[in-house]
Amino acid sequence: MVAEATAAASGIIRSSWVVVLLPVVSALLTLFFGKRTPGKGAVYGISAMGAAFVMSLLILWHFVQGGGTYASQVNWFSVGPFHVEAGQYIDGLAAVMLVVVTSVSLCVHVYSLGYMDGDSRFTWFYVVLSLFTAAMLNVVVAPNLIQLLVGWEIMGVCSYLLIGHWYEVKENSNAAIKAFITTRIGDVPFMFGVFALIFATGFTTSNIAQIGDLVKSHELSNGLVAAAALLLFGGAVGKSAQFPLHVWLPDAMAGPTPVSALIHAATMVAAGVYLVGRMYEVFINADPWVLQVIGIIGAITMLGSAFMALVQDDIKRVLAYSTLSQLAYMVAAMSLGPAGRNASFFHLFTHAFFKALLFLGAGSVIHAVHSNNMSDMGGLKNPMPVTFWTFLIGSAALAGIVPLAGFWSKDELLVSASHGHELLFVIMLATAVLTAFYTTRMVVMTFFGTYEGHAHPHESPPSMAGTLVFLAAATVVVGFLGSPQLHAPFFKWVFFEEPEAIHFEAWIALVGTLAALAGIGFAWTLYAPRKERDPLRALGPVWNLLEHRFYIDDFYMKRIVYPVRDRLSAAVYWFNQHVLDGIINGTAMATRGLGQVVNLFDRGVIDRAVNGVAGTAGATGGLLKYIQSGNVQRYMAFLFVGVMVLAVVFAKLV
Amino acid sequence: MIATVSAQEYAFVVLAVVGGVSAISVVLARNVVHAALYLVVTLLSVGGVYLLLGAEFVAWVQILIYVGAIVILFLFGLMLTKAPIGRDLLDNQNRWIGGVVGFGVFLGLVFLIQDAYKVQDSVARTTFRTTTGDVGISLFRDYVLPFEAMSFLLLAALIGAVVLARKDEAAK
Amino acid sequence: MIRLPFVLFFSALLFSAGVYGVLARRNAVMVLMAIELMLNAVNVNLVAFGSDRHDVGGQMFALFVIAVAAAEVGIGLAIVILLYRNRESINVDEVNLLKW
Fold first, then answer.
1. Is A139:A236 a contact under the CB 8 Å cutoff?
2. Does residue A632 sit at the C interface (CB-CB below 8 Å)?
């Protein structure tokens, strides 16, 4: 059995590109045949994702068995001596990401059956969902920067389409535009980073592994590598929603909840972190200050967004800020060297499952009470037991409670920071307290106390509840993969490391757990006796500051968006008044003069010709219509005459 | 000039005259049943021409299929549709056009044949005699595919005729 | 031993009679008969040319034409009967809906 699976896995790793192709095919099938298929086309996406998930598991099995990295590529296009390949580069990291992306995407596909049921653009939703997944998978398997860039950008477009899925509401389409433009601001430096790296290699390669080797052997210019690293990180900041480009993610909650789960748990935001990890040779071999910048950005985002999560009333926004904060953990850990990178990836892996679980659980709650606001919820644990228990597991994992997924990965992060990065360690710990606090606040406000809303809450349909159970099970299990007590198999598969490299320090685990318990306890004492007014409002100005998101969004609007827009429009107006109008008026005068001449010609010559032609045609038709008598035999007489004439003509003349 | 006239040519001329006259009678007859019977005579004389040309099998097919089956079909058709009798009822106002065109076609064809073969210069060739065996060998060696296609055509015609002519029960 | 043009003249006569019949008859069954005359003219030509060239192919095509003619008569008469059933008449000059 094991041997057979191993053989299958080593065979299947050669065709990993099929995993990418499956959602593309399903997107096309859904697009062209979806509406005519029973169930409006969801079956294509779900079956494709199911197959992709199984294939990803087999690919991962190859690495579990101790298999090596696999790369293959074909020539895609050439620009002079510069060749760009398309292909696949599957290492342990990519295999794990494939499993994460396909499993979460599969969950979201199944979950959407219930959540999007009856939506007017149900089929279209599935098309974009599949395409989005394909783009993310392409980023994962891409062996070179150009192919990665393609997936990266397709993902941007699809996120725009998905966030703005309900574009009838102006707010949603604004959120979609905001997400698109903000990530785009990150994409520009990213693109420059890609070009800088290719330039640094002297246009010899865009292959990630080759660039990594070149950087490692210090064959590339130091300055260029540092610049490229910073530029690439700019792309990651945009996609992973780090400060200062974090503003799009909370607004992106305007999209349907399954979309939030897909984009903000497993795929798009993970892509930024994945990119940094993929290009890690570039970052770690660049000047040390690059890593410091990354660490600082991560720390700011981590703490800031955890604070903002404290005061949100919208359950999805709590999760959104929590996502920012958790991603910041990963980004900050990236600055800590290889050990930090490994911990960061482990957190990415576990976070994908429990955050998807939380988003989908929140979606289930929203589906039941028809409101995003936690002040309209409360007491939902009785009508929605499945949602409650799964949500509770997800929340505990997020807070970092033993032995759930979040505990193990957060522990790794803390361990990696504890050696020589004391400030970051403290910030991480503080964030852990805050995380536990807002998580508890969210759970208490949603599920405990008495129901405050007006709808009649009910348990969600099996397609949604089943997905939650599956993800909850994953949340319980995946943490043990990185448990040092079990020799941390995850790190062995992914980074081919010996288990000894994984440290476990009892005091850090203890401190982490205490931090989580402190947050939970504090929140429980504040929120368990439910009050009309949020207890944190007592903080006064701090509450206002947090509620206005540190005034960052306002700052962007007032200092960047409006001025640029106003000045741009003024400049455009001036250009229009003075340059374009001049040209247009001049053209108009010339045209009028010409028009006089043409007018005469038109009436005298052309009109007469036209009328003459029309009259002739009409008269001819009037004559010919008598031939069209409806008498078939008369038609036939004409036919015979014609054939005879032709026969004689051809016999004599030709 | 026509030098010698062989016995086959005499026989052919007799058959051609009989066949031609009865062919014209087919299209001029006032009684539909007479027309059908003239058609039989025409078809028989054409069969005779086939025999003179050495095409034995085609001649028998002509007599079996045409005289035996198709004319019977025509008679059934006439019987089922209660065809009227009389020139004005059988012919339409296009008679003069038909006459002109038909005669014109005949003249045109005679002109073309004369132009191509020059009757006065033509010479008779030995008759190409084919037995049923020859035809069968050729049919199943060189013409198997058209033969099969023909079977499909006949099947389609069979089904088509049944479908077209049956009473539509649903419409009643 | 028959000279080819003789046979061709005979066939031309049959064909022209068929043309007249197709054009001048108003009874659909008569039109079909006239069409049979034309088909026979074609067959005579085919057999005559085949005989002249000592090629059995002409006879083959004559046979195929006979088969097609049989199919055509079958379908044609079915249409005629359908027409009669619907219009109590099989006069082709009354079937003139397709006109200006």
1. no
2. yes
- B5: contact with C, CB 8 A cutoff: no
Q: Are A390 and A357 in contact (CB under 8 A)?
A: yes
Burial C47-86 (b: 16+ CB within 10 A, else e): bbbbbbeeebebbbbbbbbbbebbbbbbbbbbbbbbbbee
Chain A, chain C: beta-carbon pairs less than 8 Å apart: 29
Residue A362 to residue A319: CA distance in whole angstroms: 9
Q: Report the mean per-residue pLDDT for chain C.
A: 87
Q: How many CB atoms lie within 10 A of CB A399?
A: 27
Burial (0-12, 13-18, 19+ Cβ within 10 Å), A647: middle
C-alpha span between A35 and A124 (Å, rounded)? 9
Distance CA A576, CA A585 (A): 12
**Residue-wise pLDDT tens digits, A156-168:** 888 888 888 888 8
- The pTM (predicted TM-score) of the whole model is 0.61
- Does the beta carbon of B114 lie under 8 angstroms from any beta carbon of chain A? no
Task: Give the separation between CA A102 and CA A19, rounded to whole angstroms.
Answer: 9
Task: Chain B: give the shortest CA distance to residue A631, in Å.
Answer: 10
Instruction: Please tell me the distance from the alpha carbon of residue A81 to that of residue A88, in angstroms, as a whole number.
Output: 22
Tell me how many degrees the CA angle A462-A464-A466 measures, rounded to the nearest 5: 60
What are the φ/ψ torsions at residue A439 (nearest 5 degrees)? -65, -45
Beta bridge partners of A77: A84
> Which residues on chain C are in Cβ contact (under 8 Å) with B36?
33
Q: With an 8 Å Cβ cutoff, are B92 and A633 in contact?
A: yes
Non-local (6+) Cβ contacts of A21 within 8 A are A134
**Minimum-distance CB partner of B52 among C2, C57, C91:** C2
Chain C residue numbers touching B90 (CB-CB < 8 A): 25-27, 30
Q: Find the helix packing angle between A122-141 and A268-278, rounded to 10°.
A: 10
Residue B115's CB is within 10 A of a number of other CB atoms, namely 11
C-alpha distances in Å from residue A14, one per residue of A19, A84, A162, A206: 11, 20, 32, 21
Residue contact B104–A637, C-beta within 8 A = no
Hey, which residues 33-72 in chain C have their CB within 8 Å of chain B?
33-34, 36-37, 40, 43-44, 47-48, 50-52, 54-57, 59-60, 62-64, 66-72
> Hey, are the CB atoms on A629 and C22 less than 8 Å from each other?
no
How far apart (Å, rounded) are the C-alpha atoms in residues B43 and A371? 90
Assess contact for A130 and A30: CB atoms under 8 A.
yes
Q: Looking at CA atoms only, how far is residue B102 from chain A in angstroms?
A: 9
- CB pair distance less than 8 Å for B90 and C8: no
Q: What is the ipTM of this complex?
A: 0.89
Query: In angstroms, what CA-CA distances link A380 with A453, A457, A521, C71?
Result: 10, 7, 21, 78
| C95 at B interface, C-beta within 8 A | no
What are the start-end ranges of the H helices in A400-421? 405-418
pLDDT single digits (tens) A82-107:
888 888 888 888 888 888 899 989 98
Contacts of C72 in chain B (CB under 8 A): 157
B116–A651: do the CB atoms touch at under 8 Å? yes
Res C40: pLDDT? 94
CB atoms within 10 A of CB A477: 12
Instruction: Note the pLDDT of residue B24.
Output: 92
Q: Which of A251-265, B88-102, C7-21 has the highest mean pLDDT?
A: C7-21
Is A637 in Cβ contact with B108 (below 8 Å)? no
Nearest to A414 by CA among A438, A395, A396, A431: A431
Structure-block tokens of residue B129? 């005699």
Task: Answer yes or no: do C93 and B43 touch at CB < 8 A.
Answer: no
How far, CA to CA in Å, does A33 sit from each of A122, A161, A484? Answer: 13, 20, 49
